[in-house]
Amino acid sequence: MPFMPSVPKDVRGEGEDHMVMAEARQDTRPSDTRTSAPSELNALLGRGSEFDGKLSFEGTVRIDGTFSGEITTTDTLIVGEGAKVQAEITCGTLLVHGEVTGNVTASVAVELHTPARVKGDIATPSLMVERGVHFQGASKMPDQTASNVVRFANTADGASD
Asked: Which of 49, 68, 124, 143 has the most CB atoms within 10 Å of its CB?
């Protein structure tokens, strides 16, 4: 009996579908411990597929095809090698290995991995760019509003004991 990778029930399908998802799931695992790529993949827009419109999701989505429009999530978007994305992206974390054209706002982090090509502005508190990545645009690291910051009032401003 051939080896079949373990795939959760929610992503199993008939025939080769579960194998495709299993392979995609393996591709999202970091080869480098510094990469924050998640191991669970909720959806995949595969190679050769094209989508035009608005994409909104929870969890992790990987795009390996062509997408144009708008992407909104608080979670993770992975743009695979060979993917072409032309979109305004608002996300939690963005991992790019392919092409992205459009502005990106990420609340957690943006990672640009070789051979990524990005044309557009990036706003994120954490930006990682590997050598060999082509990035044309501006990057902005907005001020972090920390919930553990305590502001002290000046005692000379009317505070009395």
From this structure: 124
Those residues whose C-beta lies under 8 Å from the C-beta of residue 45, and which sit 6 or more positions away, are: 51, 61, 62, 63, 64, 65, 67
> How many alpha carbons lie under 13 Å from residue 28 in its C-beta half-sphere?
25
pLDDT 10s digits, 40-87: 888 889 999 999 999 999 999 999 999 999 999 999 999 999 999 999
Count of CB atoms situated within 10 Å of the CB of 10: 7
